[in-house]
Design a protein that fits this description.
alpha/beta; seven-stranded mixed beta sheet; 302 residues; 9 helices; two-stranded antiparallel ribbon
Length: 302
């Protein structure tokens, strides 16, 4: 029995393979890379086989390592399901939820949604990671993601996260005094605007509802390009141009008249963000708790 490896060593092995790196796996576990090397050495010693081919520049599974991984993963998943099922009998569920999202989601929903959930379920650990790049949440080791509805992969289960939101054009009183207010949406092309770029380098085309209810896109002109909504707002407050941002992000500035909403009689496309997760029979209790909570928050929203 002394040659049977412990579960932690197997977990480390699986995590190293998932990340393709000792360093990345060590970072997730908050351990040093040498400690992971020692764990793999002990695992291979106990099993009497070599699981990984590794050098300073490369890492790959041996044939035996691949066979071991394919056989042990279902067993490890079953073990996790058994442990997780005990959560059902606890007064308060516990565990970890790892969520990936763009920065704008944190800026829009952190206080009213994510912090509120955390207070309601103090024994659940929330690990929130932001990136504006589209990633595969399964390959990257996340339990769920939050994205624009149109960006959710088709093979995922998705539910709305929060109410529908739209962007609005705003500018500072200083900017308006030095220029003028636009007469129409199309007139914005004649104004100095603050552009927003995506990780791909693509510049966001401002979107407006036309008279038929369809969406028109417009390339605006400007000498400032940023990749953050908060930066756009700060630039607009500084009088550097017109910004096109989510209305909740500038509610305080609008009340205090640090910013003025332009074209208030025009309408703008509204859309949902969605929280999404893999389609599978067993959903860990912490994630299921979050999903149920989000669905309860969605009641009555439009």
């Amino acid at each position: 029995m002394k040659n049977i490896p412990d579960l932690q060593q197997i977990k480390i092995f699986m995590l190293i393979v998932q990340h393709g790196s000792f360093r990345k796996a060590a970072k997730e576990l908050n351990l040093s890379p040498p400690s992971l090397t020692s764990a793999i050495n002990h695992l291979e010693e106990k099993l009497g086989v070599r699981l990984l081919n590794r050098s300073t520049r490369s890492l790959s599974l041996t044939t035996i390592g691949e066979e071991f991984l394919n056989k042990v993963m279902p067993i490890f998943d079953d073990f996790n399901r058994v442990i997780d099922s005990l959560n059902v009998h606890k007064a308060m569920p516990e565990g970890i939820i790892r969520i990936n999202m763009p920065r704008i989601v944190l800026e829009l929903f952190f206080q009213d949604y994510l912090l509120t959930f955390k207070k309601a379920y103090p024994d659940i650990t929330l690990e929130l990671f932001t990136t504006d790049k589209k990633i595969n949440i399964i390959e990257s080791g996340f339990d769920a993601g939050i994205r624009y509805a149109q960006d959710v992969p088709k093979d995922m289960i998705a539910i709305p996260f929060g109410s529908k939101l739209n962007l609005v054009p705003v500018a500072s009183p200083e900017f308006i005094n030095n220029n003028r207010t636009p007469d129409s949406v199309k007139d914005l092309i004649n104004f100095r605007c603050i552009n927003r770029c995506f990780p791909t380098g693509e510049i966001y085309r401002w979107e407006f509802l036309n008279a038929q209810g369809g969406i028109d896109e417009m390339n605006v002109k400007g000498d400032l390009v940023v990749d953050s909504d908060i930066a756009m707002i700060q630039a607009a407050e500084a009088g550097l141009g017109v910004a096109f941002v989510y209305e909740p992000l500038v509610s305080n500035q609008l009340k205090e008249e640090k910013l003025i909403r332009l074209l208030p009689n025009d309408s703008y496309p509204a859309a949902n963000f969605c929280i999404y997760y893999p389609s599978r029979k067993h959903i860990p209790v912490p994630l299921r708790t979050l999903i149920t909570w989000v669905m309860s928050m969605n009641k009555g929203m439009t």
